[in-house]
Amino acid sequence: MFSSKIIGWYKENMRVLPWRKTRDPYRIWLSEIMLQQTRVEQGLPYYQKFIKHYPTVSQLADASEEEVLKMWQGLGYYSRARNLHATAKYVARDLNGKFPDTYKELKKLKGVGDYTASAIASFCFDRPEPVVDGNVYRVLSRYFGVETPINSTTGIKYFKSLAVELIDRSRPAEYNQGVMEFGALQCKPQSPSCGDCPLNDGCVALEKDLISSLPVKLKKTKVKDRFFNYLIFQSGGETLIQQRKGKGIWQNLYEFPLIESDGELSIEEIENHPLFKERLQGRDFELSLYNRETITHKLSHQHIYTKFWVVHLQSSIENGISYHELEEYPMPVLIANFVKEYSF
């Protein structure tokens, strides 16, 4: 039987991870939010850092959003951190610190979708709610030979119904953890371990030589190219930063004053740009390009081509901050890496 083989394999091969030693919904929820679109190896130190600073949901709720974003810095997909903080405040203040114990109520929490609600419901409360993440899609599509795209409306519905049929209703937590772990360690995207796989006698993909072509995924949306020119103002040990607003990337994170353009700009084009002139307000300056090679920063649907322009001013900077204060602000990793590298 599929589920019993998965659970048997899991008991022998499971990795020792801190969130597997607890049924505390706060810790399970924190780990699941962090591991969305993030490898375990990358997420683990962040999880440990958050648990150390915020042992309870109330302590996370009491932190400022800026502090939470700073703690999250480098993990990417920052909307997760903002949703995490919003949900912590809701649970702590409106639900008296208690997470809901059903899939339906969990799914109402900000930032909690089908997968995360199923994970918390099964791991913490033994609800027979099947999880379907990237690992599970891969295992099920290969074992059953399903060629329906996993990111199509039809595919999402089909794989969810298949997962409902397969879950061990008496051991939902073990089964869900097991099938995800199986996909992460055994049925890997590249070079899966088919030779010693406990499911190899019934795997359609192995039988029909479809391992490399499953799961099927619809092509991603076209990647957008963006050109960022950051202005690094310097005078008297101070510089300028600003907070990104709106609903685009890096919302509420800090960066240097920015000129976004349709393509790469020359030093003359920067000097004559209306935004640059507005910032300078007629003051004397020396302008130079810091990075000769344009830095390419790749996000899921955007490639950001970045130049850092250093602007030395003779006069003082209004509303400037000390160089030493820079590291206190939450920043996109692109900016944080520049701050570490550049000798202010």
Automatic annotation (TrEMBL):
Note on cofactor: Binds 1 [4Fe-4S] cluster.
Species of the source: Zhouia amylolytica AD3
Protein name, as recorded: Adenine DNA glycosylase
CDD domains in UniProt: ENDO3c (cd00056), NUDIX_DNA_Glycosylase_C-MutY (cd03431)
Enzyme class: hydrolase
UniProt-recorded Gene Ontology molecular function terms: 4 iron, 4 sulfur cluster binding; 8-oxo-7,8-dihydroguanine DNA N-glycosylase activity; adenine/guanine mispair binding; lyase activity; metal ion binding; oxidized purine DNA binding; purine-specific mismatch base pair DNA N-glycosylase activity
EC assignment: 3.2.2.31
Superkingdom, natural source: Bacteria
